[in-house]
Design brief:
With about 80 residues, the protein is mostly helical. It has four helices and no strands.
Length: about 80
């Protein structure tokens, strides 16, 4: 008899699924569930997209000190100009 999983279990163990840490029987049950459940497939897609976006954000090089000062000065100047209107 094949193991069955429900939507709640998918949410609970999704990180294990994405990290390839599920036992073969549970992995097969997840694959079957994703094949049948539109909601869980959509959740999986959005979760993967969130991970991708987070990795992209972390890949952006940090702002150098001089650039940071220039940005802060530009913001202060814009705020002062708005205040004079």
């Amino acid at each position: 008899m094949m193991l069955e999983v429900n939507c709640r279990e998918v949410i609970t163990f999704l990180i294990d699924y994405l990290n390839d840490e599920l036992q073969p029987e549970r992995l097969a049950a997840f694959e079957e569930h994703f094949g049948e459940c539109d909601s869980c497939r959509a959740y999986l897609r959005s979760y993967r997209e969130a991970i991708r976006m987070a990795r992209q954000t972390l890949a952006v090089p940090p702002i150098q000190s001089a650039e940071s000062e220039q940005i802060a000065s530009a913001i202060l100047l814009a705020v002062r100009r708005e205040g004079k209107k």
